[in-house]
Amino acid sequence: MTDIPDLAGRVAVVTGANSGLGYVTARELARCGARVVLACRSEPRGSAAGDRIVAEVPGAEVEFGRLDLADLASVREFAAGFRYDRLHLLVANAGVMATPYSTTADGFETQFGVNHLGHFALTGLLLPALLATPGARVVTVSSVLHVLANIDLADLNSERRYRRWIAYARSKTANLLFTHELARRLAATGADVIAAAAHPGYAATNLQTAAPRAEGRRAVAWLMAAGNRVLAQPAEAGALPTLYAATAPDVRPDSFTGPSFAQWRGTPAPSWRAPWTRDDRVAVRLWVASEWLTGVAYDALKG
């Protein structure tokens, strides 16, 4: 984390910044001088995270912004209340993993709705601030588990058959397809914004244990927690690929950064990705569907 450049005067938004990878990402960006908006669903947890960052990094400039990615009205409210005319960095980090079937406030399958559609809408609504900022970046956090499944364009909301890990993998594939198409559209319009993606490998966060605990599956929660202790790298290390994608000078559009050792742990490095995450035809179809489903049109990137 010592290689992060000086970020004084820059504004960053980090979703899911109250814990885990998002917290570490927000703290380190603030440590290097950025003003960081902690975009979180819970005000008590988000505000507490801000207090912790200031305690760890005296003088850090952080502020809470309420954002519930499972509710497009909340996404619109967050974007409408964004008080800066510039945005240097948007880190789409928040997510849910392997949850039982449920739907968002707008009727979308929760993993697809939160992990992809919520961030798709947020990025589109904040696009004017990003386009107005030289050298801005959008970093979307995907997962190595995207390799488990391509998206199903005929069943984006997993209505025909719901398998929690497949739905998660599809949402993470959607993250990479979004990055691919966003990078293409930005380049086509000559925009000075980099769209990149990252993944943490296997990092110990509450993401693995949240769903089984909420369902009362104590044995699964115990196994997940044990795996975190024995096999995973800490959140401090898991956040490094995101921080690299967000700040390193050599990051390329549509790149995918992850841990160097078997995509599991280690220093940030270019990561392998499934070929279907660079499928232009599917990326365009997902983009069109996402605009229709969210009601958020990227008008500035049409042409």
Layout of SSEs?
Layout lengths: L10 E5 L4 H12 L3 E6 L2 H14 L4 E6 L5 H9 L8 E4 L17 H16 L1 H5 L4 E6 L22 H25 L4 E6 L4 E2 L2 H9 L2 H13 L2 E2 H4 L1 H8 L8 E6 L3 E6 L9 H15 L9
Parallel strand pairs: 1-2, 1-4, 2-3, 4-5, 5-6, 6-9, 7-8
Antiparallel strand pairs: 9-10
Helix pairs in contact: 3-4, 4-6, 4-11, 6-11, 7-8
Overview of the molecule:
- Keywords: Oxidoreductase.
- GO terms for molecular function: oxidoreductase activity.
- InterPro entries: NAD(P)-bd_dom_sf, SDR_fam.
- This protein is of the alpha/beta class and 303 residues long.
- It has a single domain (11-298), classed as Rossmann fold.
- The chain is built from eleven helices and ten strands.
- The protein has helices spanning 20-31, 43-56, 72-80, 110-125, 127-131, 164-188, 207-215, 218-230, 235-238, 240-247, 280-294; strands at residues 11-15, 35-40, 61-66, 89-92, 136-141, 193-198, 203-204, 233-234, 256-261, 265-270.
- The strands form two sheets. It has an eight-stranded mixed sheet with strand order 3-2-1-4-5-6-9-10, with helices on both faces.
- β5 (136-141), α6 (164-188) and β6 (193-198) form a beta-alpha-beta unit.
- The model is unreliable at 208-215 and 217-232 (pLDDT under 50).
